[in-house]
């Protein structure tokens, strides 16, 4: 069954779990909120959500220069302790994130950062495209929403497929590192420079 954004929002407010986790849980449980909460608990996602609320005051600023010095990235990745900040798992994650930003040019950290007016504009464009393609009126909004999801996957860092393993997203990778280290891991901000081009920054 098709899961509505309102259902995802409601489950997220109830549990604090991520948007994609909530959507997946609702899909697995045919839209039943109570069963979806149990599903999240069984998957260990609620425990991870509680960890994600813990403060992150340590970490590193990772740099990466790519393409013969024509693209450069600075990214701040946080954790809870200096001990974890010095581990190979954490530093490797920060390096991978910097490479991802250099290669994939995200505009935002997460979909929550996309301004409402930009979302509305994109939906309007996608709806018009579908209409020009001859799609029936009754499915235009659904098509537009589906294309907006692809927009999020392309331009929001946490939802981008990881360049080294496209079967997982950067958010999936973050959760893996958090599970291994036992700490809250957070990508706080980044800036991407391109020689002769634009400079793109995003902050959580």
CATH architecture of the largest domain: 2-Layer Sandwich
Largest sheet: 4 strands, antiparallel
CATH-defined fold name of the largest domain: Tetrahydropterin Synthase, Chain A
Beta-strand content: 15-25%
Individual helix count: 9
CATH homologous superfamily annotation of the largest domain? Elongation factor Ts, dimerisation domain
Overall structural domain count: 3
The level 1 CATH classification of the largest domain is Alpha Beta
Number of strands: 6
Measured on Cα atoms, how large is the radius of gyration? Answer: 18 Å
Instruction: Output mean pLDDT.
Output: 87
Biggest sheet: strand arrangement: 1-2-5-6
What does this protein look like?
- The chain has helices at 5-15, 19-28, 33-42, 45-52, 82-85, 88-104, 116-132, 140-155, 170-181; strands at residues 58-66, 71-79, 161-162, 165-169, 186-194, 199-203.
- It is of the alpha+beta class and 204 residues long.
- It folds into 3 domains: 5-52, Ubiquitin-associated (UBA) domain (Helicase, Ruva Protein, domain 3), CATH 1.10.8; 58-110 and 156-203, Elongation factor Ts, dimerisation domain (Tetrahydropterin Synthase, Chain A, 2-Layer Sandwich), CATH 3.30.479; 115-153, Orthogonal Bundle (GTP Cyclohydrolase I, Chain A, domain 1).
- The longest helix has 17 residues, at 88-104.
- The model has no long low-confidence stretch (mean pLDDT 87).
- The chain has 9 helices and 6 strands.
- Helix 1 packs across helix 2, helix 2 crosses helix 3 (33-42) and helix 7 crosses helix 8.
- The chain is flat and about 55 Å long.
- A 4-stranded antiparallel beta sheet has the order 1-2-5-6. Strands 3-4 form a two-stranded antiparallel sheet.
- The two termini are 33 Å apart.
